């Protein structure tokens, strides 16, 4: 089978089955190739791939993602809109070489609205989030990789009438109605610089792809304090640990007290062979917990 055809079939399958990730991982002389959807893993090739075929697939995706095909050691990130019969599938690419200089690739499927993890939120949950995330201030979206944080931010931002600016590394979901900016360190276009730039455009909602260092958290707080609505993702293990993570990154308690308006945590879980959503929200001094299992009603826990 030709490499192009094989890559088409893998991405088509990932789209149809609503997979979140596709992995190519070196294992001695062969490669493991498997998909992930929430907590579940699936291998389309029981015997794996030969190192030669896997290398050709990785190089193809790197080329399409405008990554350095000759570099097999350093971490590289990329994003592409992969053409399929139904249209295009947005993909995020991440490669790195191990100590034997064997390269691995992880492909994240960035599904568009209607086919993404946002469907796991029940209508009453989305209504609660929409009603409580429109005010000026900082809203943090936390949870493991692949839990749908970015999708939820986009969903909520679309409900706002006005200008939405996103700052990401890279842009994950293509949204023509938003002004989408992408971090590019090669031209000094960092999160901090783009946050400063966004203030001149006076957005109604500013989405920050990820808070990962002191400059970014300080920039997010600065924008929120100037009267803007700011959504940002943050890596935290739970709702309770989110504020500790902010302080660890350099956020000041006095400033956060003035601008932090909400924390949203969500995580996909395996529930009787299906995928359910554990979601927790905190707005102001009110603390709400919801647990939802697929096919059942939303259960409120005090």
UniProtKB/TrEMBL annotation:
Gene3D superfamilies hit by this protein: 3.30.450.90, P-loop containing nucleotide triphosphate hydrolases (3.40.50.300)
Residue intervals passing through the bilayer: none
Assigned GO CC terms: plasma membrane
Coiled coil: none
InterPro entries according to UniProt: AAA+_ATPase, ATPase_ComGA, P-loop_NTPase, T2SS/T4SS_dom
SUPFAM superfamilies: P-loop containing nucleoside triphosphate hydrolases
Domain of life: Bacteria
Keywords: ATP-binding, Nucleotide-binding
Residues in Bacterial type II secretion system protein E domain copies: 199-213
Any one GO molecular function term: ATP hydrolysis activity
NCBIfam families, per database record: ATPase_ComGA (NF041000)
Family note: Belongs to the GSP E family.
Name of this protein: Competence type IV pilus ATPase ComGA
Provenance organism: Enterococcus dongliensis
């Amino acid at each position: 089978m030709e490499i192009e055809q094989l890559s088409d079939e893998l991405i088509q399958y990932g789209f149809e089955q609503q997979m979140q990730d596709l992995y190519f991982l070196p294992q001695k002389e062969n490669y493991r190739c498997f998909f992930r959807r929430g907590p579940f893993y699936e291998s389309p090739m029981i015997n794996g791939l030969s190192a030669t075929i896997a290398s050709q697939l990785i190089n193809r995706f790197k080329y399409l993602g405008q990554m350095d095909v000759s570099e097999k050691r350093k971490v590289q990130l990329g994003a592409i809109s992969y053409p399929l019969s139904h249209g295009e599938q947005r993909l995020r690419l991440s490669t790195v070489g191990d100590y034997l200089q064997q390269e691995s690739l992880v492909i994240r499927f960035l599904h568009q609205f209607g086919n993404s993890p946002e469907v796991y939120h029940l209508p009453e949950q989305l209504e609660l989030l929409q009603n409580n995330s429109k005010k000026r201030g900082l809203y943090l979206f936390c949870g493991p990789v692949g839990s749908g944080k970015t999708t939820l931010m986009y969903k909520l931002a679309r409900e706002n009438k006005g200008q939405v600016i996103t700052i990401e590394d890279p842009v994950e979901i293509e949204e023509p109605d938003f002004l989408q900016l992408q971090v590019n360190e090669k031209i000094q276009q960092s999160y901090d610089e783009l946050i400063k730039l966004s203030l001149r455009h006076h957005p109604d909602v500013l989405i920050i792809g990820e808070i990962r260092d002191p400059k970014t958290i300080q920039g997010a707080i600065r924008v929120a304090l100037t009267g803007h609505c700011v959504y940002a993702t943050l890596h935290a293990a739970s709702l309770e640990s989110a504020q500790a993570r902010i302080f660890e990154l350099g956020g000041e308690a006095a400033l956060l007290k003035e601008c932090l308006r909400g924390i949203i945590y969500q995580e996909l879980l395996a529930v009787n062979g299906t995928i359910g959503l554990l979601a927790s929200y905190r707005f102001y001094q009110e603390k709400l917990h919801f647990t939802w299992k697929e096919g059942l009603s939303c259960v409120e826990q005090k």
